[in-house]
From TrEMBL:
Name under which the protein is recorded: Alpha-L-rhamnosidase six-hairpin glycosidase domain-containing protein
InterPro entries: 6-hairpin_glycosidase_sf, 6hp_glycosidase-like_sf
Gene Ontology BP annotations: carbohydrate metabolic process
Keyword Signal: yes
Phylogenetic classification of the source organism: Bacteria, Bacillati, Actinomycetota, Actinomycetes, Actinomycetales
Taxonomy, superkingdom: Bacteria
UniProt KW keywords: Signal
Signal peptide annotation: 1-37
């Protein structure tokens, strides 16, 4: 019996401070022994409904309803475009700029604090030009200070200024006159013309570039298409008007950016938005800020749909299903599959999402299909949901290995080539999909697929020596790495198939991932030599959910309470406690973390609540 199971049962009451301290000490100091069920506890799986008896209600921490309300409000807000810009700055495009248009794009900007962005004066003037078109390839001439011993160089500015080596620098004459020939520059080369005066002896720049611009301020123009984005930019000019040139078609999105820290001061586009949930809410400086401002990961879309169904928020659930429908591949070898992610912004010509990453991971398909099945289970076969599910299951069937030691397991997907690795996570995820599909669609064949998959998982992926799941199976055999999710999510699967002793061992194994920083306690994703431990809230609440499923409510409450100091004022939970550019993780508000918090504490019955009773028939 674990130390925590000795704390007095407080199923629907907040743990006392002494209980919290005792439990924390046990979590930090206890050996990695299997957790055990308390004597007299009811069976985990109801023999009639074949659903977990432990996940029928929330975990009963008095503070959690308030936290959950804030978390749910924030989750709903992420269905809409970001509204976090302000402070008086503004930027707009002038005239019509259609999706198919390229060439020059003009606009204007305003500042509420222009003193923070002083004009950098230039020592150069050009004859007869306030600006030069980006496609100009003729002669330019002008004046520099008389007597300066300098040369004038030509640059094209895109993401930064690039010197045009094919243009011979102009030597400034004693009277200050100079002349450049731009004709050697490739006509297809993009960018805005800039000219700089340099000391002929030292090469150091004298004064600012022509045309004059504002210090620490940049204008960025993005052209967004289904396959990605193209960026051109320029230092913001001294006046309010600007012109940029792009060779790329696509939806035009323009930003005014403070170059000191990358803060977006203003943004403008004319796009409608899809029914997709933004994955993160970034602040300046956080990993992903700007680049992933409108990105929706389909895994997050699925989690949000499961939460919406569990909370019976039909309006939100309908929108999320509609968003998934807009992304499901309809033809080719990946018909039925859902891509990794996409932009919340829509192509104005096709009304389909932009910036679609067409890689297809089996684990994501499992979560999406599970979410759609939950939707159909609750609301019926509406909005074409069963067709989406059957098409998705057809793609999944193509990932099943049929030969070799890995026969019966499901491969990782395509990115774009076949991923031959078989991860524990996506295989246990798929067991829940097949089991739920057999119940919702009423087809025994899916129950048979669940049975076959369970046998393959236990034969190939369970590490009997260490009493835990391996990370997966690759071409050379078992992948014995030890990530948190294989233990936490794996324990739910083990309980679901009636392997309760192994489930308790797997859940007990999660203790080695427990990590504390300041007032925050949670779990790290994996432990490797040289890897910085960072609290991972998606995984932390995955453990909380596994504890609820196992009937360990006291531990689940303590897990939720330990992470609570990290909840933001807006109700969101960060993805990780700290940004880590090397690991590419962010401390931004995260749909994945916030959704898992709600699934663990408020609506645990919505997530993986199906289970089997040995000897019982289908429910």
């Amino acid at each position: 019996m674990s130390m925590l199971s000795m704390i007095p049962t407080i199923r629907r009451h907040r743990p006392s401070p002494i209980a919290v301290l005792l439990a924390l000490a046990a979590l930090l100091l206890a050996p990695m022994t299997p957790l055990s069920a308390a004597a007299g506890d009811p069976p985990l799986c109801d023999p009639v409904t074949q659903r977990f008896t432990t996940t029928s209600s929330d975990i009963g921490v008095p503070q959690d309803p308030q936290r959950a309300r804030k978390a749910m409000q924030w989750l709903r807000s992420m269905m809409d475009p970001p509204q976090d810009l302000g402070g008086g700055a503004g930027i707009r495009l002038s005239g019509g700029h259609g999706y198919r248009d390229s060439g020059e794009v003009s606009g204007s900007f305003t500042l509420d604090n222009p003193g923070q962005y002083p004009v950098v004066s230039t020592e150069l003037s050009l004859d007869g030009h306030a600006s030069i078109p980006s496609d100009y390839r003729g002669q330019v001439s002008g004046t520099a200070p008389a007597g300066v011993k300098g040369v004038v160089k030509a640059y094209l500015h895109t993401d930064r200024a690039y010197e045009q080596a094919s243009v011979v620098p102009a030597v400034v004459q004693p009277d200050g006159r100079w002349e450049l020939d731009l004709s050697p520059v490739d006509p297809g080369r993009a960018g805005e013309w800039q000219f700089q005066l340099h000391d002929a002896a030292t090469g150091e720049q004298i004064g600012g570039s022509w045309p004059e611009h504002r210090e620490n301020l940049r204008i960025e123009l993005y052209s967004l298409t289904e396959s990605g984005r193209a960026l051109v930019g320029m230092p913001a000019p001294s006046g309010p008007s600007f012109t940029l040139s792009t060779r790329h078609e696509g939806l035009k999105l323009v930003r005014l950016v403070d170059t000191r820290d990358g803060t977006i001061l203003a943004e403008y586009h004319e796009a409608a938005t899809a029914d997709l949930i933004r994955s993160n809410s970034h602040a300046p400086g956080q990993v992903g800020y700007g680049d992933r401002r409108y990105t929706s990961d389909t895994y997050d879309q699925a989690l949000a749909l499961i939460v919406a169904v569990g909370a019976d928020d039909r309006s939100m659930a309908d929108r999320l299903v509609n968003g998934l429908r807009s992304l499901q591949t309809t033809s080719g070898q990946d018909a039925g599959a859902f891509p990794r992610d996409a932009s919340q912004l829509l192509n104005p010509e096709t009304s389909t999402p932009l910036e679609v990453t067409r890689t297809y991971f089996t684990g994501r398909q499992a979560f999406i299909l599970y979410a759609l099945l939950r939707y159909q289970e609750r609301y019926g076969d509406i909005n074409g949901v069963s067709g989406m599910v059957r098409s998705g299951l057809g793609w999944v069937a193509g990932q099943r290995s049929t030969t070799g030691a890995e026969a019966g397991l499901y491969k990782g997907g395509r990115a774009p080539d076949q991923i031959t690795w078989h991860s524990t996570e996506h295989n246990t995820d798929l067991w829940h999909v097949f089991e739920l599909a057999s119940r919702v669609l009423g087809e025994k064949g899916y129950r048979d697929q669940a049975d076959a998959l369970a046998r393959a998982i236990m034969d190939r992926l369970w590490n009997a020596g260490e009493q835990r799941f391996n990370r997966g199976w690759n071409a050379s055999g078992p992948d014995t790495a030890d990530p948190l999710d294989s233990a936490s999510w794996g324990s739910v699967f083990l309980h679901a198939i009636g392997e309760h002793e192994k489930a308790r061992a797997a859940l007990g194994h999660t203790r080695r991932f427990l990590h504390e920083e300041g007032p925050v306690r949670g779990y790290t994703a994996r432990i490797e030599p040289g890897l910085d431990r960072n609290i991972w809230f998606e995984g932390t609440f995955g453990v909380t959910h596994a504890q609820v499923t196992a009937g360990l409510w006291d531990e689940a409450r303590i897990s939720a309470e330990g992470a609570s100091p990290a909840q933001a004022a807006d109700g969101s939970w960060p993805y990780t406690l700290r940004d880590d550019p090397v690991e590419e993780v962010t401390s931004a508000g995260s749909v994945a973390s916030t959704a898992w918090y709600l699934l663990a504490t408020s609506t645990p019955q919505a997530m993986w609540s199906e289970c089997r009773v040995p000897g019982a028939g289908a429910p």
